[in-house]
Amino acid sequence: MLPKWCDKYSIHNDEIDKQHKKLFELAANVEMISDKPVHKGQIKFLLADFFNYMKEHFTEEEKYMAKIGYPELANHQKIHKSIIQSMIDLIQNIKSTNDLKEKLNIIASKWLLEHILREDMKIEKWHQAQLNKNKSTPATENTQEIYEYICSCMDKIHKVPFDVHQKIQKTNASYKCKTCQEAIKQK
Fold first, then answer.
1. End-to-end CA distance of the chain
2. Could you confirm whether the keyword Nucleus appears in this record (predicted)?
3. Residue 49 maps to which CATH number?
4. Residues forming a β-bridge with 146
5. pLDDT for residue 95
6. Strands 157-161, 185-186: pairing kind
7. What is the model's pTM?
8. Which residues neighbour 46 within 8 Å (Cβ) at sequence distance 6 or greater?
9. Do 22 and 111 meet the contact criterion of CB atoms below 8 Å apart?
């Protein structure tokens, strides 16, 4: 039996949580048809819906990870690519309706929900640790001020401490984004 969505699976981002809830619903639909006689077209429709939504979700999740500066973004992207490729491989080797149902169930339970419950919870754990670290550090004069800089990456904000900001302003130093390799600019 697949787990149901609950708040302990939240990563505290409304859009990503909404998408995770939808993926849990799709997984529940898969589980519901797994032991019932259904038409092959119905399963293919559910599979296509699952596949398309998963790709859309992975794209949004990767943008979110980039925005918060998640250090394991590259590894997480590899996992996403692996899930998509494995799904394509499974789809190409379907032999019967029961085979299709079984493979869809594997996708729903093994890859998707395990991914959310394991890998995506790592994002939340890291993000909460960063937030708590920032809360527990006492502000001393201007040294704890944070300045926001941007680069060419869509929706990415670089949090720059006061001393680095000062160096950029006074010496015209240039710092590059690790993702797009372009110099960051003050927002």
1. 48
2. no
3. 1.20.120.50
4. 161
5. 72
6. unpaired
7. 0.65
8. 26, 29, 30, 33, 104
9. no
* Residues 86 and 57 grouped into a single domain: yes
Segments in the chain below pLDDT 50? 139-143
Whether 2 is covered by a domain: the verdict is: no
Residue with tokens 């708040």: 7
Instruction: State the pLDDT at residue 59.
Output: 93
* Cβ 160 vs Cβ 146: under 8 Å: yes
What are the pLDDT digits (tens) for 74-97? 999 999 998 888 878 777 776 777
- Amino acid 144 reads Q
Pull the structure tokens for residue 171.
């010496």
Produce one character per residue of 95-118: b if its CB has 16 or more CB atoms within 10 Å, e if not. eebeebbebbbebbbebbbebbee
Mean pLDDT of the chain: 81
- For 164, half-sphere exposure in the C-beta direction (CA atoms, 13 angstrom radius) is 16
Which tokens go with 107?
A: 């996708």
- How confident is the model at residue 163, as a pLDDT? 77
Same domain? 151 vs 92: no
Quote the pLDDT of residue 72.
93
8 Å CB contact between 112 and 54: yes
Half-sphere exposure of residue 10, counting CA atoms within 13 Å on the CB side?
A: 9
